[in-house]
Design brief:
Layout (H helix, E strand, L loop, with lengths): L27 H13 L6 H17 L6 H10 L1 H15 L7 H17 L4 H5 L1 H21 L2 H16 L5 H25 L4 H20 L5 E2 L4 H8 L4 H28 L7 H22 L17 H18 L1 H11 L1 H6 L4 H27 L1 E2 L6 H14 L10 H20 L4 H30 L1
Antiparallel strand pairs: 1-2
Helix pairs in contact: 2-19, 4-14, 4-17, 4-18, 4-19, 5-9, 5-10, 5-17, 7-8, 7-9, 8-9, 9-17, 11-17, 12-13, 14-15, 15-17, 18-19, 18-20, 19-20
């Protein structure tokens, strides 16, 4: 009997292209070389945005003595929070290779309902008029039915809850109004998702049409030239303008840093015990320690009195920080640790392959629009709190473009299948710094728009080039 010669064992320097990588340990030097190789292959991720972020901070700190002041830094966090939150939802849509041009005005419509409920003391029937009120509730019921057809049960429940809240005539209450805004955003996402995923209409066309539709709805609710103020509500005003106490700020740091360290190190040790490949322990520990030190320094600085008025004390971490962190943790967990998140990446990577693997592609594609509009409604709460009112331009063109731009600038791909919720936070920070820094330099709105557009164009170019390089590397 002739024996087949045994294949020699693979060398340690062999390319990591087979299934053996799952049980192959890497040293620190190998991990660094592998990371550099992925960068050369075009897998840049958030690196360009992070480098741009550092460059912008250095440039504006040199051009303005006020830029790195505690008062401006805290204000900067609140300035871009609303658009950053909307961008977090847009990441879900981009991951499946779609686009939502109506996210901005959807958030504006949710904000308008919130403000009207507060101003009219819960009497939406009196604020809208009987005809508009009936049409509004009919739209909520329609959204619930469409969500049920798609088997998106959370969309059904929240849409019907919106009908209950509008019809109950509850007195003005900030928590009711925030919940009502969330219900409106969810209902809008159910309608959008059904038209795109079930009917099969192009997302660009659908969301462009709905962008104009929701803009008209906002105008109908508020009236041309009208403004609905919410700054007199202590809770709504504090969302973007309030701060944690010193004790609360340090508790936030302890929970955030401790939770991140526990999750990261526990996962790392679990993989080591099972013999699975993971990053070298020194690199993992260094990353955790670096973020902990950065968080401690930031918390210490923000708990210092930063008020320019000697008679007023302003200190503590702004409320928007735990809000953004909470959404970041939740979104990251959903995408990285749940079957639903894996399905989103699968659909965005190859829709037909995902369908053949048994994934309900229609439901996944529809659900990301529900997530996007729901998160956009939360963004409306934040930016409405920041300005203290809602006007007919709420969630308009700049809000939408900056939100989409934040996701793309941070590293999310316009072609689907690649991106993280953290990309929206990084990109949102970049855009907030651009607007804030140019404002401190007293540059006109034209310059701000030009620079922001060029930054977005650069990010899209990097995305296209890196994707082409990655494709060439695979071939």
């Amino acid at each position: 009997m002739t024996q087949t010669p045994t294949a020699p064992p693979p060398s340690s320097g062999a390319a990591i292209t087979d299934f053996g990588i799952d049980t192959t340990a890497m040293s620190t030097s190998e991990a660094v070389r592998d990371y550099l190789a992925r960068l050369r292959a075009g897998q840049l991720g958030s690196v360009p945005a992070l480098l741009g972020l550092v460059a912008l901070v250095v440039m504006f700190s040199m051009l303005s003595d006020v830029f790195l002041s505690l008062h401006n830094v805290a204000n900067l966090l609140a300035q871009g929070a609303g658009q950053t939150i909307i961008a977090m939802g847009i990441v879900f849509v981009l991951l499946v290779g779609e686009i939502d041009l109506s996210a901005g005005t959807a958030s504006g419509a949710a904000g308008a309902v919130l403000a009207m409920h507060y101003v009219e003391d819960g009497n939406l029937l009196g604020g809208m008029g009987s005809t508009v009120f009936l049409l509004f509730n009919a739209a909520l019921v329609l959204a619930a039915v469409l969500a049920a057809v798609l088997r998106i049960w959370a969309g059904t429940v929240l849409s019907l809850l919106g009908v209950v809240l509008t019809g109950a005539g509850l007195a003005a209450n900030p928590w009711v109004e925030i919940l009502l805004a969330l219900c409106v955003g969810t209902a809008i996402g159910c309608i959008t998702g059904f038209l795109v995923a079930r009917i099969g209409m192009p997302s660009f066309v659908v969301t462009l049409a709905l962008f104009l539709t929701w803009q008209g709805v906002i105008l109908q609710f508020i009236g041309e030239g009208g403004v609905l103020g919410i700054s007199t509500s202590p809770v709504l005003n504090a969302v973007a303008n309030g701060n944690l106490s010193t004790l609360g700020s340090w508790l936030l740091f302890a929970v955030a840093a401790g939770g991140y360290a526990a999750a990261t190190l526990t996962g790392h040790l679990r993989r080591l015990r099972r013999g699975l490949v993971t990053r070298p322990t020194p690199l993992v520990v260094c990353k955790v320690a670096t973020l902990a030190v950065f968080g401690a320094v930031a918390t210490a600085l923000l708990t210092v009195n930063r008020s320019p008025n000697p008679s007023v004390v302003i200190s503590g971490v702004p409320y928007v920080v735990p809000i953004v962190l909470g959404l970041l943790v939740l979104g990251t967990y959903v995408l990285n640790r749940t079957r639903y998140g894996r399905h989103i990446y699968a659909v965005g990577g190859n829709r037909e392959a995902a369908r053949r693997a048994g994934i309900d592609v229609t439901r996944v594609r529809a659900s990301v629009f529900v997530v996007c509009s729901s998160v956009a409604a939360l963004g409306a709460v934040v930016y409405s709190s920041k300005v203290g009112s809602v006007d007919p331009q709420a969630g308009g063109l700049n809000t939408l473009l900056f939100a989409v731009g934040a996701a793309v600038i941070g590293g999310a791909s316009l072609f689907g299948g690649r991106g993280r919720v953290s990309d929206a936070v990084i990109g949102g920070t970049v855009l907030a710094i651009v607007a804030n820094g140019l404002g401190l330099l007293e540059q006109p709105a034209a310059v701000v728009s030009i620079v922001t557009g060029l930054v977005l164009l650069l990010a899209a170019t990097v995305d296209a080039v890196s994707r082409r390089r990655a494709g060439n590397a695979v071939r």
